[in-house]
Amino acid sequence: MSTDELDTVSLTVPFQAPSASFVRTELKQWLLDKGFRGETVDDARVVVSELVGNSVRHAHPLPVNQLAVAWFVDGDDLVISVTDGGSGTSPHPISAAETAVSGRGLSIVEALVAQWWVEDDRDATTVHVRIPLGPAR
């Protein structure tokens, strides 16, 4: 564990679409407070929105109709984790048709992060991402 992991933010939010906006706002403010600006903040906001949105659209909630979101800085990366109750299939990007109105979420995430991976447990699925931060300003 790096010393930065001691500054982990952990949220439990309602399993509903508006939670993406709440989490996005909380992450933005945390990054700004840490001195990060510009594309770093924008990319992180897009990624966390996609992850929370995908959970709500495609998975089941954790007990008490919630999902869990956490983030911390690990070296030069922001690590974000979103945990839901799973869906029976592991999250994966798909090839959406040009005319499709959805289906690009994990492809967008893949384009913005250095690494992403999934941990499937019997009662939960967690998607983790690592986003290069660049220097704080």
TrEMBL record:
<dbReference type="Pfam" id="PF13581">
    <property type="entry name" value="HATPase_c_2"/>
</dbReference>
<protein>
    <submittedName>
        <fullName>Anti-sigma regulatory factor (Ser/Thr protein kinase)</fullName>
    </submittedName>
</protein>
<feature type="domain" description="Histidine kinase/HSP90-like ATPase">
    <location>
        <begin position="22"/>
        <end position="129"/>
    </location>
</feature>
<dbReference type="InterPro" id="IPR050267">
    <property type="entry name" value="Anti-sigma-factor_SerPK"/>
</dbReference>
<keyword id="KW-0723">Serine/threonine-protein kinase</keyword>
<keyword id="KW-0808">Transferase</keyword>
<keyword id="KW-0418">Kinase</keyword>
<dbReference type="InterPro" id="IPR003594">
    <property type="entry name" value="HATPase_dom"/>
</dbReference>
<dbReference type="InterPro" id="IPR036890">
    <property type="entry name" value="HATPase_C_sf"/>
</dbReference>
